[in-house]
Prior knowledge:
heterodimer, A: 367 residues, Cytochrome-c3 Hydrogenase, Chain A, domain 2, 19 helices, 9 strands, 41% helix, B: 136 residues
Amino acid sequence: MQGPLIDTLxxxxxxxxxxxxxxxxxASLMALPPAAGVAMAEAMAAAPAAAKRxxxxxxPFQECTGCTESITRSHSPSIEGMIFDMVSLDYQETLMAxxxxxxxxVLRKTxxxxxxxxxxIIDGSVATGLDGAYSCIAGRSNLALLKEIAPHAAAIxxxxxxxxYGGLPKAKPNPTGAVSVSDIVKDKPIxxxxxxxxIPVVMTGVLAHFLTFGSLPDLDKLGRPKAFYGETxxxxxxxxxxxxxxxxxxxxxxxxARNGWCLFELGCKGPVTYNACAxxxxxxxxxxxxxxGHGCLGCSEPNFWDAGGxxxxxxxxxxxxxxAAGAAVAGAAAGVAVSFANxxxxxxxxxxxxxxxxxxxxxxxxx
Amino acid sequence: MxxxxxxxxxxxxxxxxxxxxxxxxxxxxxxxxxxxxxxxxGALDLHSLPxxxxxRAWLKARLGxxxxxxxxxxxxxxxxDETACPxxxxxxxxxxxxxxSVELIEVAFVPELVKAHPEDVQNGLxxxxxxxxxxx
Lengths: 367, 136
Ligand code: SF4
Ligand code: SF4
């Protein structure tokens, strides 16, 4: 593929307007101002398309395949699909036709032919207990495979909360000694795309960035692309005005719930969770958890499985009612302060593992 | 129990309103002034603003319906509808499954997407000339 990207897309039957529309969608989900879409379209259209499709190797470690399930639902065929067509996904155990020795041979050859140039995507955590014996592929532990292949990659994408932070396998008591990719690999650029699972377009957005600008997007201190993880769920939540006014649903079926009030007291972790659900939404933009009436679980944050009950309000140890009243009076500024305070609380909660019981689901009197 | 025995609760029409839509009307007015003074177009991304579904409906009702509706058929349907305030467009982009991917309020004489790009016009002209060559 040679020549500017827009010509390459034209060959695929993608018109300039379709492309402009795509860029405006991308700008919106990256939380950029609408004008950025036009600027982005101009930059991307003029960018030279790569002479050879960059090679991508995808290794599944200690995972549930949920991340793969999510990505394959990145509504294809769409322009993202087109851009995806521009990478060569050389090894992905769940999707590839080859199996057994044949598959392992492909892996060896791909690494050999693209040394220092391929993008390595990993989903799942790395088991380190018993020398990594808890999770093996073709007789080799994930740990050994990662140590062998990572040095040859151009960059690594840690897909999902397990690869990014250890995720469910790392939850106490962590029987397999699960760790994140960045706990093992120290000398490569690593992009963390947390979420359980991550939002499909976030993944394709990062890939599109890599392909069109030839670089990785800006990352925050936890290695997450700022464009998607720059703000909390709470910052962009459409129920936020009710939070600021102190209007909270107290149960899942009371009047507040019917009126679409804030789910904070029902355990919403939106204030401490950095992700793009509130703007990008799920299932092809149909809806997202808070819109469906359930609080955010905080699935894209480190150690979320050990961060306390899903239905416990973040403010539980303090006095939620007093805090709510404060927020109502002081408005948005108080909301921000509260979310900072809650981040600290969540950290404390991590230290003590709590299980969710039926009692958590039913709001008790003392709350 | 007959039908009449079922208590009917009328929903409060203002139940879902957050009060966040009104400032948007002011912002749109500001942008219209800028459009008139400098010709600079602008847009508001509705997805990125904390608006409840009721706020959105309220805003849409206030802006009303204008005379022009544009349907763009590319990678899913997009509608670019002028509101009762000329120069203010309610733009909805949908993906191939019909789900809304972006909702914008554009302030422009004509939205950028509607205009044909000179390079595309050039291609169209080349196509036409080829056609005429065949017909000669
Ligand atoms: S606490 Fe949850 S439901 Fe309430 S405004 Fe924040 S993110 Fe939305
Ligand atoms: S709303 Fe929260 S728990 Fe749900 S998917 Fe988004 S980040 Fe994860």
